[in-house]
Design a protein that fits this description.
The chain is an alpha/beta fold. The chain folds into two domains: about 200 residues, Isopropylmalate Dehydrogenase, CATH 3.40.718.10; about 140 residues, Isopropylmalate Dehydrogenase. It has twelve helices and twelve strands. The strands form two sheets. It has a ten-stranded mixed β-sheet, with helices on both faces. Strands 6-7 form a two-stranded antiparallel sheet. The longest helix has 17 residues. It is globular and about 50 Å long.
């Protein structure tokens, strides 16, 4: 029986987590769920966004399912005050989650929900592979009364392993990788490009590789997103580009993600959207990204491919039948969206 640690977090997190558990219990009765406070909720309870016992439980689980963290009550510019987002960084580092996968599909039912023109996004099916435990988010930082700095640092080994994840993903997709960097300016990007090319040349020569500067990649994601297959990039660039790519789907409420480590170790699965404190408790949050994150957990965390496909198909069919939450231009509540997907699930 797989043990799943659940981290509802803050804002709409507990609401969409309840929906995900309802869906997963419909998929199979063979789950054991273990809930822990995380993010702002953990700060209120433990004084830290990630308690030691929570991290220990996550390491021992078969997979970790996270909803959302953060909110204005914990916003602060003090470098000494705990912030919910510190829990995410601590979890990634503590679990060794170095590869973040963010699939982006333009669903036929939602082509007109995107702010981009239908003809630009039709056929888009891309995967952003973001390095997750290196770069500027984890580098040394300083702050004085007159200046501040953040160090961006990458080892060759860190670039090698994320490159392999991207090339392996491309092999089972359309066999193309776009490596995104800023090699015309940054030394870390020059190293990144050299290492990615060496891994490609020595291990994945059959995969098509291209280099794209990050500013051009941002433009091309709007101009011709369907041309991309797999995008691999460093932590900061991946954070920004994957949120931009979410607009192809019509709403950031549609984008799931998987954070993975070495084979055999538990992964973390979460929607890309935030905690949306402005709608928390109103029962109108879109649970679909949470459902799709659960599907990624079934596929990448547990190896349950048929069950993952069933969840994704149920979401597609519910949308085809007219399901629209408020962020998608409709008025379906969280409960109604959950019921629509569950009713379309092939058990």
């Amino acid at each position: 029986m797989p043990t799943i640690v659940t981290l509802p977090g803050d804002g709409i997190g507990p609401e969409v987590m309840r929906s995900a558990l309802e869906l997963l219990r419909t998929v199979s009765e063979d789950f054991s769920f273990e809930e822990h406070a995380f993010g702002g909720a953990a700060i209120d309870l433990h004084g830290t966004a990630l308690a030691d016992e929570t991290l220990a439980a996550c390491r021992q689980a078969d997979a970790v399912l996270l909803a959302a963290v953060g909110g204005p009550r914990w916003d602060t510019t003090s470098p000494d005050a705990p912030r919910p987002e510190q829990g995410l960084l601590g979890l990634r580092q503590g679990m060794g989650l170095f590869a973040n996968l963010r699939p982006v599909r333009a669903l036929p039912a939602l082509l007109d929900a995107s702010p981009l023109k239908r003809e630009r996004i039709e056929g888009t099916d891309l995967l952003v592979v973001r390095e997750l435990t290196g770069g500027i988010y984890f580098g040394a930082r300083t702050r004085t009364a007159t200046s501040a700095s953040d160090l961006c640092s990458y080892s060759v080994a860190e670039v090698e392993r994320i490159a392999r994840v991207a090339f392996e993903a491309a092999r089972v997709r359309r066999n193309r990788v776009a490596s995104v960097d800023k090699a015309n300016v940054l030394e870390t990007s020059r190293q990144w490009r050299e290492v990615v090319h060496r891994v490609h040349r020595e291990e994945y020569a059959e995969v098509e590789l291209s280099d794209v500067l990050v500013d051009n990649a941002a433009m091309q994601l709007v101009a011709r997103p369907a041309e991309f297959d797999v995008i691999v990039t460093e932590n900061l660039f991946g954070d920004i580009l994957s949120d931009e790519a979410a607009m192809v789907t019509g709403s950031i409420g549609m984008l799931p993600s998987a954070s993975l480590c070495e084979p055999g170790d538990p992964g973390l699965f979460e929607p890309v959207h935030g905690s949306a404190p402005d709608i928390a408790g109103k029962g109108i949050a879109n649970p679909l990204a949470m459902f799709l994150s659960a599907a990624l957990m079934l596929r990448h965390g547990l190896g349950w491919e048929s069950e993952a496909t069933a969840v994704e198909s149920a979401v597609d069919r519910a949308l085809d039948a007219g399901l629209r939450t408020r962020d998608l231009g409709g008025d379906a509540t969280t409960a109604e969206a959950t019921r629509a997907v569950v009713d379309n699930l092939d058990r």
